[in-house]
Amino acid sequence: MASVSPATVSNVMNGRRPDDDEIAQRVKKAAEVLGYSPTRAAANLRSGKVPIVAALVPEIDNPFFSSIVGNIEALAGENGYELIVASSSEDETTEASRLKAMLAWQPAGLFVIPTHDDFLSRKLVEESEVPYVVIDRMASTLFADVVSVDNRAAGRLAADHLLDVGCQNILIAASSLSIHNMTERCAGAQEIAWARGLRQDQVRIVEAGSCHPDATEVLSQYLSSDKRPDAILAMTNKLTLSAVSAIIANEVAIPRDLALVGFDDYEWMSARKTPITAVSQPIVQIVEAAWRQLSQRIEGDEGMPIPVTFECGLHERASTLGFRPTDIVDSKRSVNSDIRGSPDE
């Protein structure tokens, strides 16, 4: 229709104008009539770049990690890429095996949430020269582009709220203290609690793991003990679910007997009869920032690694807002008893 070669059409549609402006106008008019628009994937194939990005996460069935993958998938589609996804199952050997398989596809770039902070398998990625961005988990010694949240501030935010509603015996449920973001969350919670006058024995940390039944059993032991906490701060979404299961099993009333703060604010937390107060991570912004960084690396940016950190939010709900401190409840009972008189009178 435009009476030009395919190469000329490609140059015009990809922004490389020919010497003759009249030819460029004919090509664009023909493309408009035919409803044609160039695709990035096709351009990548012609240029030798494979239009694939990869994402490796610790667990596919964890709602936080699956939300990360879902948002990456959406951005990949918008930018002409296909996405391949794998899980390391929280195992370093599996992580290395999955990375080798993914790198065999020669992806344009890689998103990774490592099994451990040191990310030993990163040597495989660096030897392949595939650009990569680390999300969520990182160590201070990791020399790479990292997108995460301020985990210490998130821990402070949650514990500060529990103290505001009157909690004085807080149990912090962590998955694994070998993971940097987990230790940061716990440290932040401890710092604010101690700064506001709680003793060390009033802020306990339990390493409950990430297996739901096992974590439920661990938390149940605390709820059935003589030193039952008056608050649980669960540091992951899976531990939040385990806390709810333990609370139900031990017939503890929320928030009358115990306040609960969860992590990662998912729909089920607000859909309960007693909605759960939860720390929320800005997942959309995290993935958008990671995509921008990876895109720059794919395009050849060889600058210094860039750390990007976001703040978390707190959604206050009935699981904490209705909590009544024990000393206040006991005081009211004492007053009421004095007014009514003893049953023996």
CATH superfamily of the largest domain: Response regulator
User: Given the C-alpha coordinates, what overall shape results?
Assistant: elongated
Low-pLDDT parts are: 327-345
Quaternary assembly: single chain
CATH class identity of the largest domain: Alpha Beta
| Structure classification | alpha/beta
Query: What is the straight-line distance between the termini?
Result: 105 Å
Percent helix: 40-55%
Spatial extent as radius of gyration:
27 Å
- The helix/strand series, from N terminus to C terminus, equals HHHEHEHEHEEHEHEHEHEHEHEEHH
Number of domains: 3
- Largest sheet geometry: 6 strands, parallel
Layout of secondary structure:
Blueprint: H1 6-13, H2 21-34, H3 40-47, E1 52-57, H4 63-78, E2 82-87, H5 92-103, E3 109-112, H6 122-128, E4 132-135, E5 146-149, H7 151-164, E6 170-174, H8 180-195, E7 203-207, H9 212-223, E8 231-234, H10 237-249, E9 259-263, H11 267-271, E10 277-280, H12 283-298, E11 307-310, E12 313-315, H13 318-321, H14 326-340
Helix pairs in contact: 4-12, 7-8, 9-10
